[in-house]
Predict the 3D structure of the following.
Amino acid sequence: MNTAILTFLFLAIAQVLCVPIAKRDAALTIVNPTLGESWPIGNTQVINWTTDSNAPIDLVLMKGSEQVQSIVQGLNGIQGSYLWAIPSNVEPSTEYQVAFVSNGQALSTSPAFTLTLTPTATPNEIPPPTTAADLNHWTATANITLSDSQGNPKIVNQNTSAANALAPALSSLIAIMAALALVL
């Protein structure tokens, strides 16, 4: 037989024999979620674990002893993490756990953690203008140089602060309009 054919057969057999065999009895340690941790519903969180098994695992959301929903199926155990987009149809509770299942058998269950509603922004009360002016402490300075048709500079200076913000805004506009009128 030709040595090239023998080499090919040897490499093909070696390749088949090197395929890893799933370890089914390996320990699985849950890193995240931790006891009492709070995750907002609708956000994405990382579920982490450690194991030396490459057996396929399923992640299942549990509430007490009841399965709420499947999170993901068929992950390679050695993967060690999964990015979970927490669905918005899950109810808030402090009794959730993630169960790690392989071949229909629970390998491990996370400690209880909380799924909470995502906080929503609340509009702030808008204070009246006089209060707003008292709360703001700022000063704005503008120096504008305009040139007339002969090239002579016309300078307009304006200083404005929060305490007198409303009136100077109008006077600034009038001053700029007057400077433009001089130029034109």
Q: What stands out?
A: The longest helix spans residues 166-183. The first strand starts at residue 28 and ends at 32. The two ends are 102 Å apart (CA to CA).
